[in-house]
Amino acid sequence: MSAPLPQQAESLKASLEEQANKVRQLKSSKAESGLIQAEVKILNSIKDQMAALGLGPPAKTSGSSPSASSSAPIKYTLKTPKGTRDWEPLAMSLRKKIFSTIEQVFTSHGAVTIDTPVFEMKEILAGKYGEDSKLIYDLQDQGGELCSLRYDLTVPFARFVAMNPSEYGSIKRYHIAKVYRRDQPAMSKGRFREFYQCDFDIAGSYDPMIPDAEILCILVEALDALGMEGFTIKLNHRKILDGIFDVCGVPTEKVRTISSAVDKLDKSPWSEVRREMTVEKGLEEEVADRIGEYVKNKGGRELLEKLLADPLLSNHKSATEGLKDMGLLFDYLEVYGISDRMSFDLSLARGLDYYTGIIYEAVTAASAPPGFNKAAAATTDPSASSSSSSEPSSKKKTNKKKGPDGEDEVDESTVGVGSIAAGGRYDNLVGMFSNSKKPDAVPCVGVSIGVERVFAIKMQQLREAEARGERTGVRSKEVEVFVMSVGDGLLKERMGVAKKLWDNGIKAEFLYKNKPKPAAQFNAIEKDGVPLAVMLAPEEWKSGCVRVKEQKGKDTDEGQGKGEEVKLDQLVEYLRSKGAGSRD
Amino acid sequence: MSAPLPQQAESLKASLEEQANKVRQLKSSKAESGLIQAEVKILNSIKDQMAALGLGPPAKTSGSSPSASSSAPIKYTLKTPKGTRDWEPLAMSLRKKIFSTIEQVFTSHGAVTIDTPVFEMKEILAGKYGEDSKLIYDLQDQGGELCSLRYDLTVPFARFVAMNPSEYGSIKRYHIAKVYRRDQPAMSKGRFREFYQCDFDIAGSYDPMIPDAEILCILVEALDALGMEGFTIKLNHRKILDGIFDVCGVPTEKVRTISSAVDKLDKSPWSEVRREMTVEKGLEEEVADRIGEYVKNKGGRELLEKLLADPLLSNHKSATEGLKDMGLLFDYLEVYGISDRMSFDLSLARGLDYYTGIIYEAVTAASAPPGFNKAAAATTDPSASSSSSSEPSSKKKTNKKKGPDGEDEVDESTVGVGSIAAGGRYDNLVGMFSNSKKPDAVPCVGVSIGVERVFAIKMQQLREAEARGERTGVRSKEVEVFVMSVGDGLLKERMGVAKKLWDNGIKAEFLYKNKPKPAAQFNAIEKDGVPLAVMLAPEEWKSGCVRVKEQKGKDTDEGQGKGEEVKLDQLVEYLRSKGAGSRD
How far is the C-alpha of A259 from the C-alpha of B238, rounded, in Å? Predict the structure, then answer.
């Protein structure tokens, strides 16, 4: 490393002073020792940086860091925060393709997009997620407002609609953005602390079930467009579920906890869920058994008919409202030709509290949980960085145990990777933000695609296809033309050719060397799979010509050995005829 | 609002309990009263939510909120956090267009993209921004690691390269993402706390100035593609600047502060900067005057020749290194045909500390600061939400005064809106993260486009064009076809037609009503500027036909009154012939 610039030294000094002040302040205010230690660690890291530049002695480290030697340069913990990761170029290409596929479906249905800040006023999120509120990231109080990172895109959307009721009280919007949950991460299994959601929501008062049916239609189209095979959309209605709990005799104060037990039926057998209801949650056995008779049901329209014929439910106000909705919904799903993709599943309860009508969850074969009795045989390496994903983890985790670092560890063998999309109707959320007593609640229905899980599945498929030697169509780099020289450096000449290509919308690059070796240039072409090479040689250049060689044409090595000679002033045209610059 | 669902009540109760515990804990640990008050406010908001649903008495509010009445529903502060804002659909369309324009240029030059988390380990950012470190947002310590929101995209990029030196020690990457600064916001003027940056960086060891010249080429191409008119790129070199300060006699410990004074010459006259150097910062008058002789210079290659002829500089090690770089750079800029877009400006110093070589800043006429003596006549309404932007605000603010709320207010009449892009070479930043003593520093050069400022300028132009009645090509909604009914509701028929269009990649919507009025449907078409209407009427439908009407065709009202009759099985083909579904 070269000698420090004066500015660098000054900057470090300023940082040192500020950090030292902070530590002094924390010590004098008798702050928590953990907090002080963390800030001292940062202070030491600044001292070490200065020491490395010869600007002072290194920090005296305590015995807790045995490998620290006083002459070693600063030891950074080079990592991203727990539960987060970087995305490398190839992954990004695939992610962008997935996002644009979803976006194409969303905009086909007339959706607009909005953006909201990554953090919200803390009170906006308060009281929206029940027990999961503890998973919200707060910003430090640095003087000013208390803010939290958004936990989903739904509550910020509701806040946005409530702020602009006259303009956006009726809106179809999508939003593809990151959300944050201080959940126990399971990187290899698909649970992150920072992850993308792709949301589509319809806000506004319309005739019943028309937007609801379209949301399901959008979900099917999006998952089809993504090539997700063999998915099913589980469907239920909160009002039917409430009716069932009511007619079975669940006391009001136990509805939520019993609902959450029922929601586990996708990964636990009935006997276990029944035990949770009765032994853990104190429900009477007969009540549990009555619930069991209902929630084991799944099917299609015939299940609806069966419930309509049920004397208890058909006389229950909430239940009949829900059943009527479902009837209309099935009508519309048949028009859209997607009713066979649905499973009316009375065990689906969904974790989030704000739903008031239909609820749904898409599951693929690829995301099905392992068998109940399969032990921790599945290898789950949390440090594996290439095949991780995330999903809206509304499900409660079970079987936690204390790990060696004192934090909760999740026994992944019992945790399903969950759905790849989920959503429902939430008619009261916007109204919760309303500051007037007028009934200006804006009914909403929406879906959130757990795109990290989709990504993990597609990435896995991509790796497998690559391993089989197939061309996947996913490249990290989009370069179409590599401009190279043979026989001499011809740097300015290569620059000039590249500039001509850039100006004509052709993606091109060259090696940043005065006199690059041919081998180095061919390696670059090979590594990035660049389809076309433009070769400059001193003699040809003098006569206004270059050679163009297709790298992976169908007729490899068939008259392609030296490439085609092309006049410089016809180069752009020639390259276009070979498919370059087509995006322009 | 309908009656609360049991789950909602349970959820609120759980939130209430958690929040009450938090307040108790804060009180018992004698936390700061401001912090306790803020948490109590959240507690009260949960109580009020419950009261609004009839689940208990409202919070007893203190006298500080005079408008609070015990029977009123909860009063949310419906806003985004200070310095942040929502982006409505039209703005988003324009923003997406700007991003994709920039992305197109970046990928033309062979860049790949990566993504990094929004927050980093706090120590990664520590010591990188000098005095500006105080503007970093920290996450609250909720048990676990100390993290901060990223302040720019450069330091996370350097961290990424340092973590993957063998794979990404040589990379061209772009990154379009949000960064966070607890700066004093000036929303109408272009300073946000959450704002996008568009960065392009080249990491790796190459022959001198080749990547540097390409970065400037990319910047010119991007600003041209964005239609930014009359911009200039100011250019300087840190080593030349260091040489000047050295030969003029600036003591090492004053270099940074004097450099920051020089950097103000774009908005303050020399007399003022001189006063700051001498009176405020204690520099000898002769030293200041010597600096003045140098930094007033700007021009092109002829300035370089003049400096090379300067006996003091031409014998100064650092300065001659810088001058040699500049000579080579000018050669390459001439090959790229962009040297006339540059201004070699010795007063450019740039705020960030990590630069080690050339530095640059693009300024447009539109972003030039107001004249020095123009008082606060310019209207600057911080609440205006439609024409705001942001930029990498590395410049120090001046002329602060205490506002009525006790926070600093910026007297915007003296604050330039700053550059629209800036960057430079930073050869030591990746090395700072290196944990070994080997010289594995990765030299880097990059540029960051202050896209919020670009957006503000383009949005202003868009509004002006709309006011003149011109068609701007920017719509918030991309819908191509509106499916409507006349004479009867024909809901399922409209659904069926829309589904056919969606399945064929045509963007379509219809009104979510069983029996919509024609006027309501025409209003929707008009409002969103949908180009094509498909009309279903009972009689025509029976004979397998619909009518298609172009809404804003060239021959308005010329045989277009009733539209064209089209057979249903030829509808997709017909609509495609009218330009629909072209993105597919």
Answer: 65
Interface confidence, given as ipTM, is 0.82
Say if A472 falls within a structural domain: no
- Do A336 and B499 count as a contact with CB atoms less than 8 A apart? yes
**What are the structure tokens assigned to A197, written together?**
């959601």
- State how far residue A267 is from chain B, nearest Cα, in angstroms: 22
Q: List, in order, residues 6 or more apart from B454 with CB less than 8 Å away.
A: B98, B226, B228, B389, B420
A207, closest residue in chain B (CA to CA): B513
Mutation target to probe the B interface, by most B beta carbons within 10 A, among A10, A175, A383, A509 is A10
Model confidence pLDDT, tens digit, residues B301-356: 999 999 999 999 999 999 999 999 999 999 999 999 999 999 999 999 987 678 99
Query: Token match 């009765």: residue?
Result: A278
DSSP-based three-state secondary structure for B402 = strand
Distance from CA of B486 to the nearest CA of A (A): 18
Listed as ranges, residues in chain A with pLDDT below 70 are 1-10, 34, 51-75, 188-190, 352, 366-418, 435-440, 552-560, 583-584
Query: Which tens digit of pLDDT belongs to each residue from A332-391?
Result: 999 999 999 999 999 999 876 789 999 999 998 765 444 322 333 333 333 333 333 333
- Burial (CB count within 10 angstroms: exposed 0-12, middle 13-18, buried 19+), residue A574: middle
| E strand segments, A106-187 | 112-113, 119-121, 147-149, 171-180
> How far A371 CA lies from chain B's nearest CA (Å)?
30
Considering the domain architecture, whether residues B205 and B97 belong to the same structural domain is answered as yes
* A46 within a domain of the structure (yes/no): yes
B167: chain A residues, CB-CB within 8 Å: 88
Q: At residue B167, does pLDDT exceed 70?
A: yes
- Residue ranges of A 421-480 with Cβ closer than 8 A to chain B: 427-428, 431-437, 439, 441, 476-479
Residue A471 counted as domain residue: no
Contacts with B436 from chain A: Cβ below 8 Å: 73
My answer on whether A286 and A218 are in the same domain is yes
Task: Using CB atoms within 10 Å of the CB of residue A496, give its burial: 0 to 12 exposed, 13 to 18 middle, 19+ buried.
Answer: middle
Q: Is residue B439 domain-shared with residue B492, that is, in the same domain?
A: no
- CA–CA distance, B195 with B391 (Å, rounded to integer): 8
Same domain, A21 and A113: no
Tell whether B576 is within 8 A of chain A (Cβ).
no
In a domain, A584, yes or no: no
Range of the domain at B191: 89-464
**Residue B126 touches partner A, C-beta closer than 8 Å:** yes
Q: Is the same domain home to A126 and A253?
A: yes
Q: How many domains does chain B have?
A: 3
B365 touches chain A (CB under 8 A): no
User: Is A414 found in the same domain as A268?
Assistant: yes
Reading the block at residue B191, the tokens are 């300073």
The predicted-structure confidence for B358-397, as pLDDT tens digits, reads as follows: 999 999 876 544 432 233 333 333 333 333 333 333 333 3
Nearest to A114 among B89, B428, B503 (CB): B89
Output phi, psi for B299, to 5 deg: 165, -145
Q: What pLDDT, in 10s, does the model give residues B91-141?
A: 999 999 999 999 999 999 999 999 999 999 999 998 888 778 889 999 999
Shared domain for A96 and A189, answered yes or no, is yes
Domain harbouring B568, CATH code: 3.40.50.800
B199 and B289 both lie in a single domain: yes
